[in-house]
Amino acid sequence: MPELPDIAVYVERIEHQFVGQNLLKLRLASPFVLRTAVPPISDVLERPLLGIKRLGKRLVFSFGECAGKTGGSLLVIHLMVAGRFKLLAPGGLIPKKLGLAALDFANGSLLLTEAGTKRRASIHYVSALTLDGSDPLAPFNRGGLEPLSCTADEFRQVLTRENHTLKRALTDPTILSGIGNGYSDEILHLAKLSPLKQTNKLTSEEWDQLFTATRATLNEWIDRLRDEAKNGFPENVTAFRKEMRVHGKYKQPCPTCGSLVLRIVYADNETNYCAGCQTGGKPLADRSMSRLLGKDWPKSLEELEELRPSLLGKPNPARSTKPTKSTKPEALPAASPASPNPKRSRIKAEG
Asked: Is the separation of the CB atoms in 129 and 136 below 8 Å?
């Protein structure tokens, strides 16, 4: 799922390309991507694009007034897990398999795509003014604190309102805005903190480490993605990048200490971490494997390395009683000559 750094760079490049232009056409290739009926989506046509901002992991397109249409309007797009934007020539074709919608402007078209069979990406169109004066974006705002604009005290306060694991606290959109599975792994590795450590157990020094690592990681990746896009448009937006330290690097060496990156698997996600850097060398219990192994769950990296071959379905010479390929079986004693069958001999004699 695109997270804060990815969305931030999308916002910059879309603003650079389209702000100030009128939306000439909005083409929907999938009727399910549009989740609102009032006002009708046709109301957005010919309106000028005034600006774009990030709201959590959503992008909010702000449109102004035009002839015959008073009051502004907002287009809210949520990419979810597999949604992406691409830049096309004006009126470019929408791909049949991946294409969901296209916003057509005079100097190009913004294409919304989604990989896979699950259609989770969404478009909501709402009026900028509500009848009761309430915030039209309230239904889309999960309330999380913005990690790049808050103070260290605000950061600590919001993460300690309830006691959660650090992994849960960083990725909860009602606590922090825009951070997901990928960048939370990178933040915790840089902070040298266990993903399962409870927020009410952190020392003042560890809070400083976490706050600093959060801002450093997010800013580092915004700069990286901005440099990749340069003056063009973000391509290959993905949660797994070769420059990442631990996320998506299961069983690969940690760039800091050389220990193999481990994981905790749950539902459709996994948490990647380095036991050497983050947990004092202790592998964290994996829900499925710890249930299987019970009290035999390894207490150290050394025990894990000894156990690893059997977990992978391979013989471990240190634990297996089966001979290895280099071990020759002992020669069996020579078989004694077979004794004649007495019954057969008796039959022959009687004949």
From this structure: yes
